[in-house]
Design brief:
Layout lengths: L2 H18 L3 E6 L8 H16 L4 E8 L6 H7 L4 E7 L4 H7 L13 H11 L5 E7 L7 H10 L7 E8 L24 H10 L1
Parallel strand pairs: 1-2, 2-3, 3-4, 4-5
Helix pairs in contact: 1-2
């Protein structure tokens, strides 16, 4: 998103605020990966905060991210503007998450992502509530308890984590032709409800 487009987004939202006159305005940055363009995340947040505050409207900012570009500096800049939570996706313990969500390989670079994300979460721990979201399939669901154990072992507690929720990876008609990943279900109704109950218990 260019700055010109970001300005137009802010102008459009401010017009809607003037029309609707809400008590608060909630914006959610999600992707792709929104923090690749953190300049525009900050610009939109600053612009909207300044505009809606003068109208007596509260701004709420939410971010859904893979966690690789999270930083305390970003959190500290957005907190006074209305940042209320960050959602980070973890799809299992270290080997499972890094297999499901690797970095693009460049030369001999390590493509593992789990440890970097955990390190970033530890840096913002206590500054802002965060949500752990995750996706699972038949091959990865058994690794979620190890993720939960590791979070506890690394010092995360109930007060740090606003919510934890895992959902099945769902395919779509013809996904077999466009994905190297085997997906068993195409709708929530086709997934095993015992998995939901088991994951709730584990969490």
């Amino acid at each position: 998103m260019s700055k010109k487009t970001a300005k137009r987004v802010c102008e459009w939202l401010i017009e809607r605020v003037d029309d609707v006159r809400p008590r608060d305005l909630t914006i959610t940055f999600f992707g792709g990966e929104p923090l690749i363009n953190s300049k525009m995340v900050k610009f939109i947040s600053r612009t909207l905060h300044q505009e809606v505050q003068s109208k007596g409207v509260i701004l709420n900012i939410e971010i859904i991210t893979n966690g690789l570009l999270l930083s305390p500096e970003l959190v500290e800049e957005l907190l006074p503007l209305g940042l209320r939570w960050i959602k980070v996706t973890l799809d299992g313990d270290a080997p499972t998450h890094s297999r499901m969500r690797p970095k693009k390989a460049v030369g001999n670079q390590n493509t593992d992502t789990y440890d970097e994300i955990i390190e970033n979460l530890l840096k913002i721990k206590g500054k802002v509530p965060f949500i752990i979201g995750g996706n699972y399939d038949e091959s990865t669901k058994c690794h979620i308890p190890a993720l939960l154990d590791d979070l506890k072992k690394k010092g995360f507690c109930r007060e740090d984590v606003k919510k934890i929720a895992f959902k099945p990876i769902l395919g779509f008609p013809g996904h077999e032709n466009s994905s190297a990943h085997a997906i068993e279900a195409c709708t929530f109704s086709e997934t095993n409800t015992d998995d939901f109950l088991w994951l709730i218990k584990e969490t």
